[in-house]
Amino acid sequence: MEFLKIKMKILSRIGLHGTSLFLLFPPLVFLAIFFYIPFIIAFLYSIGIIGRDRVINIAPTLSYFIEALNPLYLKVVANSLYIAAITTISCLIIAYPVAYYIALKASYKLRNLLMIAVILPYWISFLLRTYALMTILSSLNMLFTYHAVVIGMIYDYLPFMILPLYVNLEKLDRSLLEASYTLGASPTKTFLKVTLPLSLQGIIAGCILVFVPATGEFIVPYMLGGVSVTTIGTLTWDLFLKFHNWWRGAALSIIYIFIILAMLIVYVKKIGGIEI
C-alpha cells in the first residue's frame, strides 16, 4: 500500500504528459535493448563499420550488400515471399468463414468455446507443436517436402488470421445487414457489398500478421522442409552460425527488412485505402 501511495504521488506531480512518458518508459527501454540496438549492430555489420577482425572501420562499404544481391540469394528471397504469399492467401480462405461463423452466426456460449479452441494450440510450445506435426507428416510420407512447409506454415499462422477477422466482424453493425436484406439484396450480394468491404481492415491486419513473420520463418522450413526448402530464415541462420559470415548475413537481413517494409507500405496504401 505504501508503494502505491508513493507511485500515485509521483504520477500526480509529473502530470498527464509525464504520466504517459512514465508508463511508456519500460516498453521503450525493452524495445531499445532487444530491437533497436540489435538492428543498429546488424546495420553496422552490413556496411562494414564492424570489420572482420571486429575492429571499427571509419569508411563504410556496400560490398556486403552487393554480395547479398547474388542471384542465388535473391532466388531464396523470392521463394520465401512466395511461401509467405501462399500461406497468407490460404489462411485468409480458411479463416474468413471460421471468423464469420463465430462472430455472426454462433451463439454467445458457442462463440466463447470456439475462440478457446482457436487459441488453445498456442498454450503449447511452438516447437512441440512443430515436432508433433513432423510425426504426422512423416507417417504420410510428406516430411521434408515443399508441401510439408506450406502445411506447417498454415497450421502455425492460421490463428493470426482468425483473431483480427473475428474482432472486426464481431463489431459489425448488424442493422446494416438487416437493412440490406430489407432492401431486397440477396445474402451473396449483402456479403459482397456490405460485409466484405466493412471487414477489409480485419483482412489487412490478418494478412500483415501472417505475411511478415511467415516470410522470415525459420523453425518450420528448417524442421519440416530440411535441405529441400531454403528460405531467407534458414539462409540467414546458415550465414550467421554455419559459415560465420555475419556481414553478408546482416546485409541480407537488412535487405529483407526493407523489402517487407516497402511491400507493407504499398499494400496498406493501395489496398487498404490508408494515406501514409
List key phrases describing it.
12 helices, 2 domains, 0% strand, mainly alpha, 276 residues, MetI-like fold
Shape: globular
First-residue to last-residue Cα separation: 46 Å
SS class? mainly alpha
Question: How big a fraction of the residues is strand?
Answer: under 5%
The CATH architecture of the largest domain is Orthogonal Bundle
Q: Kindly state the percentage of residues in helix.
A: over 70%
Could you characterize the architecture of this molecule?
This protein has helices spanning 2-46, 63-68, 71-105, 108-119, 126-139, 146-170, 174-182, 187-198, 200-215, 219-225, 232-242, 246-270. It has 276 residues and is mostly helical. The longest helix is centred in the first third of the chain and has 45 residues, at 2-46. The model has no long low-confidence stretch (mean pLDDT 87).
List the helices and strands and how they pair.
Blueprint: H1 2-46, H2 63-68, H3 71-105, H4 108-119, H5 126-139, H6 146-170, H7 174-182, H8 187-198, H9 200-215, H10 219-225, H11 232-242, H12 246-270
Helix pairs in contact: 1-12, 3-6, 3-9, 5-10, 6-9, 6-10, 7-8, 9-12, 11-12
Describe what is shown at a glance.
This protein is mainly alpha-helical and 276 residues long. It has two domains: 2-46, no CATH class; 73-270, MetI-like (MetI-like fold), CATH 1.10.3720. Helices cover 79% and strands 0% of the residues.
